[in-house]
Amino acid sequence: MEILNLSLPATNRFATEYLAQNQTMEGLFHYNFLKSSEYKERLSELNNRTFIRSELAEHIEHFMSRFPSSFQVKESIEKLKKDNSVVVIGGQQAGLLTGPLYSIHKVISIIVLAKEQERKLGVPVIPVFWIAGEDHDYQEVNHVYIHKDKKVEKSIYPEKIREKKMVSDIKLNKDVCSAWIMSLIETFGETQYTNELIEFTNQALQQSHTFVDFFAHIVMELFKDYGLLIIDSGDPNLRRLESEYFLRQISNAGQITHLVKSQQQEIKQFGFPQAIDLSDHAGNLFYYDEQDQERILLEYDPDAALFKGKNDLVQFSTNELLELALEYPEKLSNNVVTRPIMQEWLFPTLAFIAGPGEISYWAELKKAFEYFDMKMPIIVPRLNITLLERHIDSDVDSFHLSVEKVLIEGISKSREEFLQSLKNKNLERLFEKTSKQLLENYEQIKECANMEDKGLIPLIEKNGSILGEQLQFMRKRIEESIQSKNLVVLNKYTAIENSLKPLGSPQERIWNIYYYLNQYGFQLIHEVMKLHFEFDGTHKVIKI
Fold this sequence. Notes:
The chain is 53% helix and 15% strand.
């Protein structure tokens, strides 16, 4: 197993410029992730702040007690209690079977950077994964992509959830989920690792009640040996630790929105689109309606000092919402603006591992952080990884292609060139000549017939159209016959595309880790973790 580092453009212009750390980025963030001195500076800043370390460690220990664990996990919990410890943190929604590969890449990034900085800084650095269980976008987490008849298809978990439930509250129907998972694994084909994968997954499912439980169980089985800690942002017990921080957010709701909008205007001057969709009266908090199990986004009316939601059917005075935060904090949750601020109050965050989209929205939060006398953590782009299987690598090489070119452009152009090379040029000329002659002759027939009987024109046109269609049908059948004789080669093109650039997207946005676990076993994760990664902005192609 080896790493090939490639310079590929990011998925958006902002992320591309951030990776280069050009001058524009200097004023939008507090730290430069490429400078090692910045990590020491951030560490000094955190040493001047206080955190509820013991309470947080106790909560995490309790939350993680039902998931696979290890000595390293227990060691991380003890490290978190130490006054000089810091964390590297990142998060994602709880996708089924861990969702797209980028969730796994984010976990790897968190662990690798934490280990690297612990060695360099000489202080405990703990890897923490923040499961976004408070999110309610069910469509983001309810599916996995599979290969079917050499095509990429979306397999959707059969249960429908119509309410805007938090992912933490979505219960799993274990029988339905088990049958769905078995149908997925069948599409992978049976290997020496299949039975082990099925047995583990069924055990994890039986011990899980919600999407978050199931996600956490799989992630911890894969990464327990690396001291990873996990936390669910939708956990009611975590809300109780967040109570006093909700008070600050409620009391400063109008100012937070004003500052984010102001920062957005500054970024707009550099020609970047707005990342966070924010109204002028955003309250930046959700209220959780227990009866309907629905999250309701709150707007803030500064003139009336009211927080309102759902067409004003839900409303609280500022004092009422403050009281709610004290007595029932589990009824509140953060949005994209306030979640990073809440995270910063809870954790001594050395660095945040961000995807391309997240980098953009963090830039819009700088003034809001400064308002609370804090700096944003070091925003480190997560590792962008493509897994390159040996047979795919061999096929790419046999076509005299480069992996870099395939990852940037896909395979369509190369495949089309191959198809063009298969065509019989003489046949093509004959079809073109016959088609042209047919059209010309029918025009002459129409002219002659028009003088005899105009009523025959529609019949002549229809007859000409039928003959033209038959000619094209014959042409297509001959092409298909030629292609069928070269099906092995064409299937290789399809395999390359489906593996490296499925549906025209990066591999990590479509495929799921379960295909690779079925092919290579759980040991694959440990082999990947042995590799040396650098956070230098290059794309990592891992040959397996």
